[in-house]
Amino acid sequence: MEIVDILISASFWAAAVRIATPLILATMGELICERAGVLNLGIEGIMVAGAFAGWMAVYSGTGLWVGVAVAMVVGMGFGLLHSVLTVPFGLSQHVVGLGVTLLATSSTYFAYRLALPQVTSPPKIEAFQPYEIPILSDIPLLGQALFSQTPFTYLAFALVAATSIMLYRTPLGLAVRAAGESPAAVAAQGLSVTAIRMGAVIVGSGFMAMGGAFLTMSAFDSFFFEMVNGRGWICIALVVFGSWMPGKALLGAVLFAAFDALQIRVQQTSLGVNIPYQIFLMAPYILSIVALVLVSRRAQVPAALMVPFNKGER
Amino acid sequence: MRLEPITNPSLARSLGPPAVAVVATIVIASLLAMVAGANPFSVLGLIIKGAFGSQFAALETLNRATPLIFTGLAIAVAFKAKFWNIGAEAQLYAGALITVVLGTGALPWSSVALIPTLMVGAVIAGAVVLLVPAILKTRFGVDEVVTTLLFNFIFLLFISMLLEGPLKDPMGMGWPKSARVLSEARLPRIVDGLRLHWGFGLAILCAVVVWLVQTRSTLGYEMRAVGLNREAAAFAGIPVNTVLVKTALLSGGLAALAGFSEVAGLKGSLTLDLSPGFGYTGIIVAMLALLNPLGVIVSALFVAGIFVGADSMSRAAGVPTYLADMMLATSLLLMVLAIMLTRFRVVRD
Amino acid sequence: MKHASDVVLRLDAITKRFGKLVANDAISLSLRRGEVVALLGENGAGKTTLMNILFGQYTADAGSVEVFGQTLPPGNSRAALDAGVGMVHQHFTLADNLTVLENITLGVQSLLGLRVKKAETSLKIRELSDEFRLKVDPDARVGSLSVGERQRVEILKALYRDVEILILDEPTAVLTPQEADDLFATLRIAIANGLSIIFISHKLHEVMAISDRVAVLRHGKLVAEVDVADTDKTALSGLMMGVEAKAPDIAVAKPGKTLFSLQKVCTPNIKSMPGLRDVTLELKAGQIIGLAGVSGNGQAALADVVGGMRMPSQGVLMLGGETLAQWSPRKAVQSGIARIPEDRHKTGTIADFDLTENAILEGYNSTPFSRSGWMNWSKARRFTSDIIDKYDVRCPGPDTRIRLLSGGNMQKLILGRVLEAEPQIVLANQPVRGLDIGAVNYVHGQLLAARDRGAAVLLISEDLYEIMGLSDVIHVIAGGRLSPGFVRGSMTPSQLGIWMAGQGFEQSDLDGEVAHAS
Q1: Could you tell me which CATH number the domain at A2-116+144-296 has?
Q2: Which of A1, A208, B241, C392 sits CB 3.0–4.6 Å from A46 for a disulfide?
Q3: pLDDT for residue A74
Q4: Single pTM value for the model
């Protein structure tokens, strides 16, 4: 059967991992924010900003990795804005997040139009090329899927591992996990809840921007409007789906991406040709909602998520 | 740094936030104009002229304000009950969809019968669309922010599917657009010869009705109580989940009327670009109005003026139109900060 | 013999204001090595505020803190910890998702460190645990621990950081008498090890039992400092209250018919809060039924059931003679049950609503306050003005935002709104918590008046002496189980304490078995 053929093909899984990469990066970013107790709804806008910033840097002549760094810094800047308003000032995380998304998106589009006023079709850059890891890439199926990706994807894997180690093995990660559960416990041990939460949001936003940059610097090679197309919101669902754990979130991202990759290919099959393509495009969003419903019952939500901490509050 | 509550804020302090918002938009516009290499004063002047400087401009602003009043109301109602309806875009399109499904010939009635029917249909459609996330929240505890957001994408694809399929205009030359609604379904002009249609009047009426409901009805009291302190409301016996569902229905219905108004009043048919983000802009309109229904009228006019003015300015001065979005996003953030500062004093430790 | 050079801690003229409220008014206090000083005062006297300033969670407006001769930088808990000051908070500062070890080591290592030193930490925890008789499992998740165990973790947190001054804020509020004894044993070991202790309490018998010196706070001022040897409970009580604590003069009431009853009711456990287990309780007209117990033993579940928030998973509720098939807060209100909630800020009132909007929270949906879905605000305002007059609510008027009122006045409004309708059943859950003595007397007076009118009053309180002073019949709740009713005057506090610790149930189970066997 055609679908089974698709599912056992290495190229399918390679595509799934590739599609998953921006989701993995942005989900890690959101996960770090939420673990510390802050919901960052700026994720969609920050991905857009990161997509443009990284691409623009390369278009202006810098190297690819410099572009990734630029994207990260831009993301961190928006993270700083978000965290200043939500942490020390304790403003509504819903409203601030949406405001940051609107600001990041509109400032990106504004900058794009300023930088490239005359273009009709988006200009291209020299994107990341796949790099086959010797020996490992010869493993059947897994080799093509995991070890024949671009270096940007390898970076994403490394960041998942780093996030996991940080959260569960280091004193800093301990403080982050405590801040999202009981900021009072953190303050009582002489640590600054504000510093930890702001730091988490800033770093997490950097990751989100890198997720956006992957789209323009690895998956595709140019920037166009509506590029991120709701991926940020899907990542919010993925954090819940992964129970706020990096490893599970990674699996969730790959699963979603696999579904996305599948629907592209199924459209080609005899089964898919008669179904309107919009149904396939809807699938990831519907799946996200389903995932949220399934997991919501058992969710081990960080207890202090979205609760501002006012030291010395009566 | 510490926040200390202010017990009795003065009126001047309470009016600070909207003032901050307006000032912020002016400052941002000037800064961005300079970044774009244009003269800030002329940019500001062009925006104002483009918004209100001529009869044509003013009518355009009022037309643009109409859907924003509807979505602004929808979001003000929802946010007041702490129900984060970010899906006004989908609800708008639902209203537009029903208008087209029923109004292109399925109901061969006269205006007097057809228009109210379309309105009711739109309200029901919008309410139903928001009902799903509302039930997911009350039954399963799923955060409505993400579900309503995702729904926007799903619904727009659904509309796209319909426009390329069963709803496609046979005389549309292949373009994905619906047939035109009957002339009986069109909202008449307020003044003959001027472009302003009765959707604007309807929007004002809705604002007044919402205000009456919020201040004078038991439902309005319940919505405010649930929004301010859900636990205390539940303890007192207020049926919280029912109130949230009713809020969702009201909110969805209002947003859908925006879609109805755009199709029946302005465009005449349904296309994918019917809404340039009215559902999202409604958030800004609602927040700038401090979630007050009557205030929504004023802030919708303000926001519409900025968009219309920026469009016109962009054609004249070449500064990208996204200036308007940036102005509004910044003023939203500053406004939320200002609101907090009316209630709390910042104290150095 | 203690010398002045043994002073380990000196608070100098500490002043702290929150808006117009002066929480601490130029308080000076010193602590000598090996001493136990009790900080005594009513709720709201300023004890916790003072200690939070010492520990760096708050910053004083004036005054200084000196520890071992060094002035502490204000508002800096880290500095306080480094200087040797540790605090066991009244509401535990623990992260439920982390283990005991993780909670203890949080913040100890530098945040730039690469690995959490699990083995070393675990070893030190076990050593401290043995030495101070604080039994814990370092790898247990804090979320699964009992209240007593959590407190042990809180204390170990401080001991782990080698503190020399230990502050304890109302440590026995959530302990059974037996657990309190274990705590005092630990504290004695600590003192023998050279620690000095400040102990916040409002319980006179504890203060007399464990401390060397007592500092009495009243309305933010330090009104007295005495050696325990030189004083007694009556004198301390007088200093604490400022006026003679009025013992209510109550005639024993004859119970009327049963107005509401629970028959073998069970409710599920929620996280660490026990549900009800086979609770049978009758609320009779003209009686005050007192529910004694250490907080967290099922009082919340019982209040939820009687108040309409929860339907039992097993067992039967009866109103008058009828079994209830459906139950909700609205139905409870309609059935004539007046509920005074435990937390007037969280559940009792809506802070940003005005007095009128708060007064009609339960009654808004029927005449005279509304008709066919439209509110009648003038009638609502009149109702509120009546309550303000009748119940002596001090406020500018019915349109005032309720957050501007003091706790006592808020409570009076709540009383007024539920008692005006002359309800047949009153559920009073911690009704005088956090109130000054005038408000306390007023509330108690209202409850007694309701009783005399023929209502059944269920009084839930953490204060055993309040229960003993007001109730006609006392039940004890422990672990979700309800003791039999004890008639007023038939039990001493220590006898009740045995039931509060759960031991009375075991004995009566045994008696029951013997009775069955024979």
Answers
A1: 1.10.3470
A2: A208
A3: 98
A4: 0.88
